[in-house]
Amino acid sequence: MLVKWEGIVIRSVDYGESSKVVTLFTRENGKLGVMARGAKKTKSRLAAVSQLFSHSYYLCKTGPGTGMPDLSQGDMLDSFRDMRQSLTATAYAAYIAELLDRLTQEREPNPYLFQLLLHTFRYLDEGRDAEILCRIFETKMLIVAGISPQLTACVNCGEQREPYAISVGQGGLLCPVCQPSDPYAMAVTPSTWKLLRLFQVFDLERLGDIEVKPATRNQLKHVLRSFMDEYLDIRLKSRAFLEQLERMERMTQSDQD
């Protein structure tokens, strides 16, 4: 039986001498793997649509049982060419794709996540702020993982008293009265926790220009990565490369200053 899915390639692995196993995140069925036979051949009609990040319509052949579908044909919608030509944008895209891959299960439809990924890649392709897009995506994925920080009031007493700190162990904001309950609570500026709260409910389709100070960027990253490291049992290869790239960019910026 032939089926047609709209999908984005979030992982592509060589298989044998000429084929690839391609992981798609589809609008209709969530994450699934397909076999792209002959896709490694230069003249293959599947070569372009099986590349990482490609957004296409995929015509696949499925059979009885649970075998992997065969990719028969692809109709490219967007290759995100400009994103691919930027090392920084590509590094963030790879991290975002791997994070999505690791935090989702096979064949669990989630049209919202598909749209989130699509809009994130489109903004990266337009040259928008890759770091902030990544922070928004991380915030959304923490919600998917069920470990989203509580950022409306003190997680301990429920009162709304500033200045807040953020406790990873207790799962959200701590007011000044409750901060002694966690000696490891992170002091953050109001801009940081308010942006994190905005990211949780923010519709990415409505993204405008967001100006974020370097100190706030650092706090956003530290808070989100601390929650991920504490509660998610995953290690991402793309994160190590991205962090190395970020260090190099900071050193370059420091030399210029």
TrEMBL record:
SUPFAM superfamilies hit by this protein: ArfGap/RecO-like zinc finger, Nucleic acid-binding proteins
For this record, an example GO cellular component is: bacterial nucleoid
Report keywords, A-Z. Answer: DNA damage, DNA recombination, DNA repair
**InterPro entries in the record:** ARFGAP/RecO, DNA_rep/recomb_RecO_N, NA-bd_OB-fold, RecO, RecO_C
Tell me which residues make up the DNA replication/recombination mediator RecO N-terminal domain.
1-80
GO biological process per UniProt = DNA recombination; double-strand break repair
**Keyword DNA damage found:** yes
Identify the Pfam families for this entry. RecO_C, RecO_N
- Which branch of life, at top level? Bacteria
Q: Which family does it belong to?
A: Belongs to the RecO family.
User: What job does the chain carry out?
Assistant: Involved in DNA repair and RecF pathway recombination.
Fetch the PANTHER family from UniProt: DNA REPAIR PROTEIN RECO
Q: What is this protein called?
A: DNA repair protein RecO
Source organism per entry reads Brevibacillus fortis
